[in-house]
């Protein structure tokens, strides 16, 4: 049960016991989560894990089966229109392929909000200045996604949902987008993004939630998640042969190596596990756990 809080100061998002069933499928299966204001939160998980369903419930576009949800202090299913102007939304599928130009689309969206950003500044922020007068329908896939980002942020939302925002972006556009997110974080905007790019989550997120089979299987800072894989991999060449050791105490092993080899240690590398390795392990563990009850009954 969510305790009543002042809607103006409540956390950006509160979720308690959220379930969403599609027939027999439990797409969201008992989710509890709180996201404070000003946080950049990344929701990760494999295809079909329940990320978009969760985000769409939070956006007020999908009804939940049960549980409680509060976004900026209000239930999205019952929130008044004024609530929607405080929330920016970028859906997973592009919504911008219209006959309007990029500038006209952003201007129109800006007209719906009480205190919008400057239209040209918004186009610049997403790297679309040169395409401002191009019809949205003629933009490339990546450019349309950039326009979607512009439409989500032009209203100067307190909270913005970005569902796989950089899918189709070239590497330069992704870097540009990261700078934009960092600037929005600097302004105190709460940002919830789903992504399949672990480097993006690692770089941008204050906290990461990993969801599998509709359940949160990890919730931590990027550093905290990486620390879960205790072992570092140290490799070097000794007597002409490559040696590799995995250790939870890399400094101790390095000291020992340095003592044994007073000179240069050939091919020395210390590699810490990436977020991707930790993520894949967590997802693998979750899928084994999900299968275990079925195996027990079959
Ligand atoms: N309208 C619907 N009717 C029936 N099943 C649905 C519906 N929408 C989603 N699902 C199912 O619910 C599960 C969760 O889907 P969801 O789109 O939330 O996953 P996701 O984590 O966002 O995946 P992806 O990374 O592929 O976008 C999937 O198994 C999907 O097939």
TrEMBL record:
Superkingdom assignment: Bacteria
Annotated ranges, domain ABC transporter: 13-238
Main subcellular location of this protein, as a coarse class: membrane
SMART domains cross-referenced by the UniProt entry: AAA
GO CC list: plasma membrane
Family: Belongs to the ABC transporter superfamily.
GO molecular function: ATP binding; ATP hydrolysis activity
Keywords linked to the UniProt accession: Antibiotic resistance, ATP-binding, Cell membrane, Membrane, Nucleotide-binding, Translocase, Transport
Membrane topology: Peripheral membrane protein
Alphabetical list of Pfam families matching this protein: ABC_tran (PF00005)
Protein name: ABC-2 type transport system ATP-binding protein
Record GO biological process: response to antibiotic
SUPFAM superfamilies linked to this entry: P-loop containing nucleoside triphosphate hydrolases
Cell compartments where the protein resides: Cell membrane
């Amino acid at each position: 049960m969510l305790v009543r809080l002042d809607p103006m100061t409540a956390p950006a998002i509160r979720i308690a016991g959220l379930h969403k069933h599609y027939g027999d499928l439990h797409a969201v299966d008992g989710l509890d989560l709180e996201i404070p204001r000003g946080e950049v939160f990344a929701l990760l998980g494999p295809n079909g894990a329940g990320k978009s369903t969760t985000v769409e419930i939070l956006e007020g576009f999908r009804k939940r089966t049960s549980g409680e949800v509060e976004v900026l202090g209000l239930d999205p299913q019952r929130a008044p229109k004024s609530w929607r102007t405080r929330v920016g939304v970028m859906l997973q599928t592009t919504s911008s392929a219209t006959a309007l130009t990029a500038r006209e689309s952003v201007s129109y969206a800006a007209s719906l909000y009480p205190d919008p950003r400057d239209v040209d500044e918004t186009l610049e922020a997403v790297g679309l200045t040169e395409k401002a007068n191009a019809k949205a329908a003629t933009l490339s896939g990546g450019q349309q996604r950039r326009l979607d980002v512009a439409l989500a942020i032009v209203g100067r939302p307190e909270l913005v949902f970005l569902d796989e925002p950089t899918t189709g972006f070239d590497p330069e556009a992704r870097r540009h987008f990261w700078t934009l997110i960092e600037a929005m974080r600097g302004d105190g905007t709460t940002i919830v993004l789903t992504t399949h790019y672990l480097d993006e989550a690692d770089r941008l997120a204050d906290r990461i939630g990993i969801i599998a089979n509709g359940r949160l299987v990890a919730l931590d800072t990027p550093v905290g998640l990486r620390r879960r894989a205790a072992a570092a991999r140290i490799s070097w060449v000794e007597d002409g042969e490559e040696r590799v050791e995995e250790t939870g105490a890399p400094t101790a092993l390095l000291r020992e190596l340095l003592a044994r080899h007073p000179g240069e240690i050939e091919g020395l590398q210390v590699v810490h596990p990436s977020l991707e390795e930790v993520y894949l392990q967590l997802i693998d563990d979750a899928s084994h756990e999900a299968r275990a009850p079925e195996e027990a009954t079959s």
